[in-house]
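Quick question, first post here. What does this chain look like in 3D?
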Amino acid sequence: MFRYFLIYKPFGMLSQFTREGDHATLADLDFEFPKDVYPVGRLDADSEGLLLLTNDNFLKTKLLEPRNKHKRTYYVQVEGSITSEACKELASGVNISINGKTYRTLPAQAVPLDEPALPERNPPIRFRKNIPTSWVAIILHEGKNRQVRKMTAAVNFPTLRLARWAIGDISLANYPEQNQPGSVWEIKGEEVKRLYQ
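> Answer (accepted):
Ran it through. Tokens below.
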């Protein structure tokens, strides 16, 4: 039987069940997952937000295969006041380094954003009085290693905080009561169908 779980992955936690150094892992969540359920894709330890876990390998392949152009939405707090020029650059594609080679990111969407309703981060980002921060929503159809951070750095707006807000049409906005680090909830029926769209 296929099962589908969403979690709000906390900052500092690895997107895996196996131990690696001193990092917290998905095994530390207060939830008993079925043994055959694994995360679809990853969020690095410094990122937080929506992560899908399932034993449905067909869906996993569908979501991770770049040619399917499955969208993922990130809310990104950057150092400095993001400009429309920087957003245009992010949208049209920027050069980043992947495994020592230059890679041109695929066209994306990037729009300035008012501060979103995210939970407090623990620990909070480093506050610097003389440097403003701002938020940008970035929608990607690919997922290279640390891609969002590399993209904002390429347009001179380093990422301070990164949260995945949505996977396809399933968004944290649909689950305000679960919008807390470490929350786990199971989805079924119509919600799962939305992942397949």
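The chain has one domain: 4-186.
The first helix runs from residue 57 to 64.
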